[in-house]
Amino acid sequence: MRIFPSLAGFAIFSVMLFAQPPQPPQESKKGPPPAPKNLQILTVDDLRSGIMHKFAVALGGNCQICHVAGDYASDENPHKVIARHMIEMTKEINAKFPDGKEHVTCYTCHRGTHEPAMAPPPADTKPAQ
Question: Which residue, 48, 87, 50, is CA-closest to 66?
């Protein structure tokens, strides 16, 4: 007899659960993504190739080094302007190689850190054995 109240409670709960009005469908993200804004040096094809991921890795993985959080088109961060100059510099250097390959990247100098390496690491002071 104790089963009946449990089943009745379950039945009432089930009816209440299924009697709720249907939720409106969430907007699906169909179609192309919105066009990027404020591209001055890079192209949409550059962005599609994953170049921002390469930049982030070369600079230590933090997008906010150059970008304003939530507004990647903004130029409020002065490091973004510096980054544009550096992108232009690497493009100019790479254009001088006759094989057409990319020889210089952000990682060439930055090595995963925000500040570029200005000198090689100190030599090991231990004598060779």
Answer: 87
CA dist 5 and 109 (Å) reads: 73
Q: How many residues does the chain have?
A: 129
- Assign 3-class secondary structure to 63-87: HHHCCECCECCCCCCHHHHHHHHHH
103 with 93: CB under 8 angstroms? yes
All residues at 6 or more sequence positions from 75 whose CB lies less than 8 Å from its CB, including other chains? 38, 81
Q: Model-level pTM greater than 0.90?
A: no
Could you give the residue ranges of the DSSP H alpha helices within 19-63? 44-48, 51-58
Q: Is residue 33 predicted with pLDDT exceeding 90?
A: no
Query: d(Cα 8, Cα 4) in Å, to the nearest integer?
Result: 6
User: What's the pLDDT score for residue 103?
Assistant: 95
Q: State the Cα–Cα distance between residues 96 and 11, nearest whole angstrom.
A: 77
End-to-end C-alpha distance for the chain, whole angstroms: 88
Tens of pLDDT, residue by residue over 38-80, are 999 999 999 999 999 999 999 988 889 999 998 999 999 999 9
